[in-house]
Amino acid sequence: MVEVNGMAHVIISVSNWQACKPFYESLLAFLGLECVFSGEEMIYYVGGRTALGVSRCAPEFEGRRFVQNSIGLHHLCFRARSRADVEAVHEHAVGLGAHIVHGPEEGGWAPGYYSVLFEDPIGTRLEVNHVPGQGLLAADANFQAGEDYR
Fold this sequence. Notes:
Helices cover about 20% and strands about 30% of the residues. The protein is of the alpha/beta class. It has a single domain (about 10-150), classed as 2,3-Dihydroxybiphenyl 1,2-Dioxygenase, domain 1 (Roll).
């Protein structure tokens, strides 16, 4: 058995590069990630034991929207350090013009689960959550699927 030390990075492809690139540049910088690469086809941000790359999709997919529950990515979730951080991200997402699926609210995923869920310009769902303590690893935690993830 191997115990991983986190996830090294995730790369997502987006259509509507002209809208998505500035959206992610603002969001990822607000989340405290540092831009280590910015080019005509890709941006790459690192910080908080997290790395996310956003790349321009292949030309034949330009103009398509993200389809949740299709093959591949369902959504991305960033972990916040506090409920106040979740609320601050909500305000920032509103300022970016993001479609807010739900504002900051508690959920049944883990004890104290608190999150905001919103979409980028092409509909990719992004979540920021805060889970105090051990979360699902706590002895009394019960995992329950919520409406947000269907």
